[in-house]
Amino acid sequence: LAKTTQPISMDSYEGQEVNITCSHNNIATNDYITWYQQFPSQGPRFIIQGYKTKVTNEVASLFIPADRKSSTLSLPRVSLSDTAVYYCLVGDMSDNFNKFYFGSGTKLNVKP
Amino acid sequence: NAGVMQNPRHLVRRRGQEARLRCSPMKGHSHVYWYRQLPEEGLKFMVYLQKENIIDESGMPKERFSAEFPKEGPSILRIQQVVRGDSAAYFCASSPTGMDSPLHFGNGTRLTVT
Predict the structure, then answer these.
(1) Inter-residue contact A28 to A94 (CB < 8 Å)
(2) What is the pLDDT of residues B55-107, one digit of tens each?
(3) Which site among B103, B104, B107 would you substitute to test the A interface, given the most A Cβ atoms closer than 10 Å to its Cβ?
(4) Quick one: which of B61, B71, B13 has its CA closest to B34?
(5) Contacts of B105 in chain A (CB under 8 A)
(6) How far from chain centre, in Å, is Cα B9?
(7) Cβ separation of B98 and A91 shorter than 8 Å?
(8) What are the start-end ranges of the E strands in chain B?
(9) Nearest-CA distance from B5 to chain A in Å?
(10) Which of A45, A96, A105 is facing B42, going by the closest CB pair?
(11) Which of A18, A83, B44, B47 could form a disulfide with A75 if both were Cys (CB 3.0 to 4.6 A apart)?
């Protein structure tokens, strides 16, 4: 499994755009990049997944450069309710099992 | 469509007792994963099961821990002779096809060993 590195924490203010970058230098050809969000006392919730270039959904955008050694989760106009821990996972989609490793994640604190 | 259901939400056990944690996957999902999360830490993979089969248990301690996902009924994570170090949140996730679909998580069981 590719190891990932994320900032431990980030602060932001309501209405700002937040970009959280994840490094995964050892990403393999078959690996996908997936981001999850976790609120206190809840299980993680899937946000977005991508393989290369850019992916956008109603919640976030995911930017992946050509070398795929990093990725950036972009949250537009955050609100207080976006305060959570964000996990970047890199997994081998060709294996017949899934044991994505959740690191410590990035604790995002959105202030009023 | 109900999400992944875990029960109980909170479980208190004395040292030496057994803990049984239950997980009902989302309807139509036949792949179940268990994770453990210690306070202020990320989730650590424990075991991956499909109906009646353990596919990967490489993250599960060799002793005292076991998991099953029978043909009928929920998946069970069983911890025998619990110790204080077993206190953690245990999350279950399910997916319809395994590695090519996102995981859907339950809200976890918080185990406290006194």
Answers:
(1) no
(2) 889 889 999 999 999 999 999 999 999 999 999 999 999 988 765 678 899 99
(3) B103
(4) B61
(5) 42-45
(6) 12
(7) no
(8) 5-7, 10-13, 19-24, 31-37, 43-50, 53-56, 65-68, 75-79, 88-95, 104-105, 109-113
(9) 11
(10) A105
(11) A18
